[in-house]
């Protein structure tokens, strides 16, 4: 199964989007108003789509009062972690992110040349890990993720907004070459994490 939906026309825009937002040449995807350089994002949970939103539209969903299955405001916190070890979650690859759903289940996503491959994480394993790391326990369902990159000299563990993960998936899809992704891709991934750190 493939992961976060990014339309073909949107792929380049998502990859070029900086961490703090993107250039304001495009409209709010709910009302059409012009966007500022930094703006909010909303997650349409049922379709796993991230939408750019103006301040007025974002305020409508700020307190989660829009009912189940609608739009969720994506937070902007980024926390760098010194742990936990992703091996405890049975991660077979070095680049993945984990999202807790509204029903309490956790899904792992692996960025790949065809999108993000998903699989369900053992709930007990997640709960054990979250019991030792308050940052994981505090993750907001659907809109925050535990992002790990323990590959090719990287040793990164973060709690990030889900839109950062969508950007990473789009980056991998666009830049992947050959069997292992190619050196340019891994340079771009390293730059992605350096940008998170700023």
Automatic annotation (TrEMBL):
InterPro entries assigned to the protein according to its UniProt record, in alphabetical order: DUF5947 (IPR045991)
Top-rank lineage group of the source organism: Bacteria
Pfam annotation, one family: DUF5947
Protein name listed in UniProt: DUF5947 family protein
The organism of origin for this protein: Nonomuraea salmonea
